Amino acid sequence: MTTDQTALRNLAIEVLKENDQGSYTVPTKGLYPFQWNWDSCLTALGQAHFDEARAWTEIETLFAHQWPDGMVPHIVFHVYSDGYFPGPDVWGTNRPTATSGITQPAVAGFAVRRLFERASDRALAERKARELLPKIDKWHDWFYRNRDPEGEGLVAILHPWEAGRDNSVDWDEAFERVPTEGIAPYTRRDTEHADPSHRPTKAQYDRYLWLVEKFRSLGWDNARLHDASPFQVIDPGFNAILIRACADLADLADVLGETGIAAANRARAEKGVAALDALWSDKHGLYLCKDRTTGQLVESASLGGLLPAFSAIPVQRAAAIARTIERWSEAVPFIIPSQDPADPRFEPKRYWRGPVWLVTNYMIADGLAAIGEHGVAAHITRSSLDLITKSGFAEYYDPITAEPCGGGRFTWTAAMVLEFLDAARA
Ligand code: GLC
Questions:
Q1: Which domains does the chain have, with CATH numbers?
Q2: What stretches in the chain show pLDDT beneath 50?
């Protein structure tokens, strides 16, 4: 490592330690004061670079709050804080420790396999992986039972926050069908911590809350939510993460001799990869979302359509995604923007409608490197590290100016830096 790289590594570790609450890590102080699902799983990959035991604890804590039906919630409200809205009272999920009632990208299966493979404490890794394996399998089963009722091989998200790409252009059309009448009056807290012009609009927020209130009125009964939701979107990115997690969990289960779990997850992954192909768009060189309520593909070229590179899609599709990223990179100096820069709806500073996130960069680079697209993967890694060097450990970045946006001293950004430094060395 060069001196600069060592300095970056030390800073990343400092951010991770600073946001560590003992058994879970907050994404950043102020804006996000609780535990978030996919943040924690990706954070653990960073923690493993300096404390393997602590990395396992991060994921274990998340799964300690898995619902009896198998769902793993998107937020666990471990402590009281009035700095975040919507808090536990709005969700009303009646869990022993308050949680939200929706889920997030199922990155745990991937993260646990990676932790297991790299672990130097083999005995600890085997014990922890054995404990987590059935829980993750139960979550995967929950997805296909509750979010793919017709068994098509792809799951729907019922709330934009489930995708992790909160206010992407992808949801605009389907969101029009979500009403706003009758929601309880509320005060947002996010706009006190971050620039309001970068955050979702009020019209979007009203709809986020309408969905939460609707699901709460159904007692968060997951057997009923899918069909009752006016918002059912098949996001290729979300599905690709789940498919990759199923495939990784299958491999891990094989190593641990859990043949039943291995077979079930391999079947899910294979069916998912085959079904994903119906979402491919030659015109955009990526996959598109599908609105399950209308059966139509959504005309929006976004990061969600590039993320399938993270799963075992056909090599020619992944290669086409690499070319799309190269094309986008001619329009913006820093990659990967969350929306096609040529799209008139591209906004370089507004949440998930243009900015760059290091977590999605990481997953896409990982997939592209695996199929031999080393040039583009290295470009993504370089761009990610350039952003950090120029602008620090922000939540996300403007792909044109590299301006740091959203929360600062951000946990998963720091975790990804530790991963990218490794990739850059390799
Ligand atoms: C925002 C992001 C989401 C993330 C959360 C915590 O809501 O859109 O993906 O999990 O912040 O970092």
A1: 3-425 (1.50.10.10)
A2: none
